[in-house]
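Q: Structure tokens for this one, please.
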Amino acid sequence: MLNERRPCALTQGDPSGIGPEITLRAWLQRSQAGIPPFFVLTDPDFLRRSARQLGWHVPIEAIAPEHASQAFNRALPVVPLHTPVSATFGQPSPATAASTVESIKSAVGLVIEGSAAAVVTNPIAKHVLYAAGFTHPGHTEYLAALAARPSEAAPHPVMMLWSRTLAVVPITVHVPLRAVPQGLTTELIVRTGRIVARELRERFDIPRPRLAVAGLNPHAGEAGALGREDETVVMPAVTQLQAEGINAKGPLPADTMFHTRARKAYDAALTMYHDQALIPIKTIAFDDAVNVTLGLPFIRTSPDHGTAFDIAGKGVARPKSLIAALRLAARLGERATSPEP
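A: Here is the predicted structure, written as tokens:
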């Protein structure tokens, strides 16, 4: 079923960061940037105050989700939260955590019930939520918990950073570098590769996705001289993926995977740890990259940056990544198939 007439649900993120600012600026650029309709889950009075502080004329309209698309051209549609928002730009506070969490939970609920095409999340600060008693490791894990069906385990979420020139997936994500070899397993690589291949096929319309799998060690281990993990952990995973009919290749030396000619040989690069994935994509597509969560029964995208408390409220935050996230969410929403986790 096509979802083109349903807007995307945009969460408020941490209201002390740049989320309100880039949200307002994205709406102001809606025509020239070709932004599809979206609504924001926040306190409309807070967003009005934010617009006045920034000196921008942005009409805010509190509205039900089903009326957001019709209102989008005349006003920024806001689906009000139950929790009022009182925040100061650049001054994060645990007092805002309840509204931030409510916004995420409500957005997921609206997508699951069919009132929105996708969830687009503004940046949060995990330490702020932790100080208020938030028990999930992060944004993505909370989304996975919300997606869990009764009596079933939560789906396995996979973070993909996507741009038109490069898509990367870190197998291990927010763990210290010294813990990567212990956390990296053949099973984890295979599970991640299956999810990436499936979703590139079903949501990105790539009939036979090509996966390039990076090695863990320099030169992919140099035949064991620089570490055995590439032979004992990564290679068996690639072999198993190939046996399952997935077009995977590796382990490949990470230092030669990301130049222009190499990128033409694959649709997504599976890397072994956080910076191995994020350094190349943030070098190549810093303003345009989008964080896409694969493996969930709904679509979720996010800007590929943080809360930027140091510049919040100054009117200088660029909305390009949020605009790219909104566009990609709408595009994927048109093809939503709700795959099994």
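A few notes: The domain at 1-155+297-341 is CATH 3.40.718.10 (Isopropylmalate Dehydrogenase). The chain has a mean pLDDT of 93.
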